Amino acid sequence: MRYSSYFMPTYKEIPSDAEVISHQLMLRAGMIRKLTSGIYTYLPAGLRSIKKVENIIREEMNRSGAIEILMPAVQPAELWRESGRWDHYGHELLRFRDRHNHDACFGPTHEEVITDLVRREIHSYKQMPVNLYQIQTKFRDEIRPRFGLMRGREFIMKDAYSFDVDEEGADRSYEIMNETYTRIFQRCGLRFRAVEADTGAIGGSYSHEFMVLADTGEDQIMNCMECDYAANLERAEVKLPDSQPESDRNDMNPMEEVDTPDIKTVEDVTSFLSITPDELIKTLIFVVDEDVVAVMVRGDHEINEAKLKNFLGAQDVELADTDLVSETTGAPMGFAGPVGLKIKLVADNAVKEMKNFVAGGNRKDLHLKNVNLGRDFSVDRFGDLRVITPQDSCPKCSGKIQFGRGIEVGHIFKLGTKYSKSLKALFLDEQGKERPIIMGCYGIGVGRTVAAAIEQNHDKNGIIFPIPISPFEVTILPLQIHETSVAETAEKIYADLLNHDIDVLLDDRDERAGVKFNDADLIGIPVRVTVGLRGVRNDQVEVKLRAEPESIVVPINEASAIIRQKTKDLYDSLK
Ligand code: ATP
Ligand code: MG
Fold it and tell me: Which atom of ligand 1 is nearest to the CA of 408?
């Protein structure tokens, strides 16, 4: 490609509406342009990166035995009504009506469409296992579209769906996707980790997210430093607390009332009573689907709503508003406690081990001291209901844990029979018995993968693309384009590299050297070849890797071979 006739509008200024570095750099490097909130045009260089990610995905999916199809973006509402999601998906689902007044949506995901296809075409165990995938445009009307391609409303996703006759088969399909995703993200040159993820209220199933490790990631993740346990924070299990010795349990002091005028928060109560937060209990009132439930955690712990939702098997959990709190507890917000409360009480496991603690008194300006479980109140159910903290140890091996942030680029999910049951995708097994197909689904955000790669690989001058997903592999900068010897040397290397199927950008613009260097660094092409008058007179050109500070000088007639070797080395370093 010749830069002079290419379309890659770069600029220097930091765009004011771009918060994260990948978004800024993709705009500045002329890769994307915004049409409207969360909706982008891919300019040629951006599209090249996108296509390279797609090709890696396609090669690895095909290698795994999955088969590519392409489903429509527009989906009829009837299918979503059948699965029950028309009413549950909420505002992220872009809905519209055609001229015949039929409700439809723009697909945010394709479980309904693929299950409809499969229920019509697959009837026998002999037709499975099968894994069908597509690379296609999705629409999700995200509440907060941001960070460019990272969280768009319209975006390209690879989504795959596996169909198996039994649990073992479905587990195998899942494991194949786990390995395939690992290869895909390795080949994209990313530093990533697969973590256990929340599955919502689907039950019995499991899922992993592939997280690109980056401080700007929206997700919080934890991992054990001693074993391989890693999880999204909203999922991470908390190790059961060590039980207190029996003798300690009998050590209960008489319960006392204390006046706490206008003292409500954990901070206020602990400082007023000169206690630490772990000597206090927080009681929060939740609306759980139709019911009102009190949830207790230790004062220094936070309730994990995803866990709470799974624990109660609920569709929806939400903190009660002030009116409901005072109606339920008889006190304004901030004074709720378990003693005398007449609603269902659930508590985090850590509460079981507490004694002589402080709790709200269910009356304005009142707290209770020396409250004890069993004697003063009882709990309906205990469970793991809180967010893990850095002070916790690994739930699997008790090792030390650490926290970090990540960008979710892929998600693999064992669905089980959720969709095959609701949409009646059934098959006849070997005994001629009708059974629902066991499904899995597997997504990768293509644009988000490019953005995540940039988030992880950049410096103050611009992008440092991993070579497999860079718009170009090599760029050649002839510094004095009007000098015949310079232009001819650059053309010769350019032609030779093209002949060897290298993606080369020849910067043949009539621009100052500084402009060319700046653009090359901004766009982040991994190998740069500088052809300057002085060098050419000495029969030399300069070769520099974007990721390394030093350049090397090579003889012109060896330049092409050396550059090709450099690009190959860059690919090999990711294997
Ligand atoms: P998130 O929690 O980030 O909203 P999700 O759990 O909704 O993601 P999935 O439904 O699992 O995402 O979609 C599969 C993949 O599609 C994600 O792993 C992510 O890479 C990508 N993706 C999801 N939403 C977006 C979006 N709004 N913009 C770009 N990519 C997205
Ligand atoms: Mg989402």
Answer: 18
Contact 440, 418 (CB under 8 A): no
Sheet of 366-371: strands edge to edge? 256-259, 366-371, 357-360
Show the tokens assigned to 493. 């290397």
CA of 113 to the centre of ligand 2 (A): 19
Average pLDDT for the chain: 95
Whether residue 546 is predicted with pLDDT greater than 80 in this model: the reply is yes
* Assigned token pair, 163: 């169909």
Which pLDDT score is estimated for 243? 76
Cβ atoms of 432 and 249 within 8 Å: the answer is no
| Alpha carbon of 136 to ligand 1 centroid (Å) | 13
**What angle (nearest 5°) sits at the alpha carbon of residue 156, between those of residues 161 and 6?**
145
DSSP state of 47: H
Tokens, residue 451: 């953005």
Q: Length of the chain, please? A: 575
E runs forming strands in 361-459: 366-371, 381-383, 401-416, 426-428, 434-436, 438-445, 458-459
> How far apart are alpha carbons 491 and 18 in whole angstroms?
37
Q: Establish whether the linkage from the previous residue to 129 is cis, with ω within 30° of 0.
A: yes
pTM, rounded to two decimals? 0.91
Whether pLDDT at 402 is above 50: yes
- DSSP for 256-284, written as a single string: EEEE-TT--SHHHHHHHHT--GGGBEEEE
Q: Grade residue 246 by pLDDT with cuts at 50, 70 and 90.
A: low
Which ligand is the nearest neighbour of the Cα of 197? 1
- Which residues have CB under 8 Å from 100's CB, separation 6+? none
* Cα-Cα-Cα-Cα dihedral sign, residues 133, 135, 137, 139: positive
**Contacts for 536-545 with beta carbons within 8 Å, 24 or more apart?**
536/483, 536/485, 536/486, 536/489, 537/485, 541/489, 541/493, 545/570
Q: Look at residues 238, 91, 62 and name the one whose alpha carbon lies nearest to residue 160.
A: 62
Q: What percent of the chain has pLDDT over 90?
A: 94
Integer Cα distance of 574 and 457 in angstroms:
14
Task: Choose among 368, 546, 544: nearest CA to 457.
Answer: 546
For residue 509, how far is its CA from the centre of ligand 2 (angstroms)? 43
CB 179: neighbour CB atoms within 10 A? 11
Return the ligand number nearest the Cα of 140: 1
Q: What's the whole-number mean pLDDT along residues 440-457?
A: 97
Pocket test for ligand 1, best of 208, 408, 444 (most atoms within 8 A of CB): 408
